[in-house]
Amino acid sequence: MPHFLDPHMYDLANPELWVGIGLLLFFGILLLAGVPKLVAGVLDAKAAKIQAELDEAARLRAEAEALLAQIRQEKAEAEAQAAEMLAAAEADARRLEAEAKVKLEEDMARRQQLAERRIAQAEAQATADVRAAATDQAVRAAEDILAARLAAQGDPQADAAIAQIAARLN
């Protein structure tokens, strides 16, 4: 049998009855004083504060996600720009290499032509020197031969002719 159905429970000398009555009076005073409204107000304020913090956290998360998306987009743009710059640098390097190769070939051709001209000039000079030396040698030989013949004969016209030949050959 439950304890509150016991007739001894409602005896005024029973301390448990007075504890129950005191408890009911305490709860009644609390209700009359508006404590539940105060507790509910405090809990509502706490809930509103928590909701505001959750809303702020959601807003911050949305901002962070937007910022992350922006950073990823900027990173992709930077990578694309870097790839374009690399491709442009490679194209410039190939173009500069081709230009340098052409310039080098032109320079080599010009130097080869210059060397060939110098060789040709040297050959022409050597040929002229050889001819001059051969002419001088021939003139001396002719002078010696004619001088030997003329020494035996002594002709003034022959001396004049020899002088003319020497002047014409040089």
TrEMBL record:
It is found in: Cell membrane; Endomembrane system. The keyword Cytoplasm does not apply. Residues 43-125 form a coiled coil. Its main location: membrane. It is a single-pass membrane protein. The keyword Coiled coil applies. Keywords: ATP synthesis, Cell membrane, CF(0), Coiled coil, Hydrogen ion transport, Ion transport, Membrane, Transmembrane, Transmembrane helix, Transport. InterPro entries: ATP_synth_b/b'su_bac/chlpt. Pfam families: ATP-synt_B (PF00430). The chain crosses the membrane at residues 17-39. Belongs to the ATPase B chain family. F-type ATPases have 2 components, F(1) - the catalytic core - and F(0) - the membrane proton channel. F(1) has five subunits: alpha(3), beta(3), gamma(1), delta(1), epsilon(1). F(0) has three main subunits: a(1), b(2) and c(10-14). The alpha and beta chains form an alternating ring which encloses part of the gamma chain. F(1) is attached to F(0) by a central stalk formed by the gamma and epsilon chains, while a peripheral stalk is formed by the delta and b chains. Component of the F(0) channel, it forms part of the peripheral stalk, linking F(1) to F(0). The b'-subunit is a diverged and duplicated form of b found in plants and photosynthetic bacteria. This is ATP synthase subunit b. The lineage of its organism: Bacteria, Pseudomonadati, Pseudomonadota, Alphaproteobacteria, Caulobacterales.
